[in-house]
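Kindly inspect this chain:
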Amino acid sequence: MALIPRPRRTVAPGAVLVPNWLDPDRQRMLVAACREWARGPVPMRAARLPTGHSMSVKTVCLGWHWQPYRYSRVAFDAGGGRVLPVPQWLAQLGKRAVADAYDDLQAGNAYQPDAALINFYDDAARMGMHRDQEERSAAPVVSLSIGDKCTFRFGNPETRGRPYSDVELCSGDLFVFGGPSRFAYHGVPKVFPRTANPECGLPSGRLNITLRVTGFEDQP
């Protein structure tokens, strides 16, 4: 029986979901790249919050190292190594993502991501409602999903509470948020185990690759 197609949709002004944007070959390539980055000079780790608690999501960064709630070139909280640069091919993928999501080639050409956060969610991982506000740029955030499905809760710029929309993100989906929604609260309240397409190259869990423009030229 044929699957019901999921149409692209605008979730909020400036926030666009493009289902199945990554084909299986591209997903497998990204999974392999993420494994290499996780073995790089800065290992994938669970960031520690100012409260002393560790996040349930594990993260490795490119370009700029993120830790709550700041960026640096050197991972002082994860061994002291310098993060790897954002590869040109990944930046180009981000440009195409913005162009396709907004149907705006000029916006895609202008997009210059200089940081990538790769988050790995196991069955129990969650991400609380938060805003991506450590950057000094209002350029869009590009989010790519690979692996298990999740509920992505996308809210508003004013509060962690309602109004928000719960969006199902599946392997290969693209979500871009910018403009009026650039600083909207968002989170992942649930991951659904064993829901990934086996062709994606990730046997379990969920990878989320987010590309950002930090606006930094040197140490923030």
Remarks:
- DSSP finds three helices and 13 strands in the chain.
- The mean pLDDT is 94.
- The chain has one domain: 9-210.
- The two ends are 53 Å apart (CA to CA).
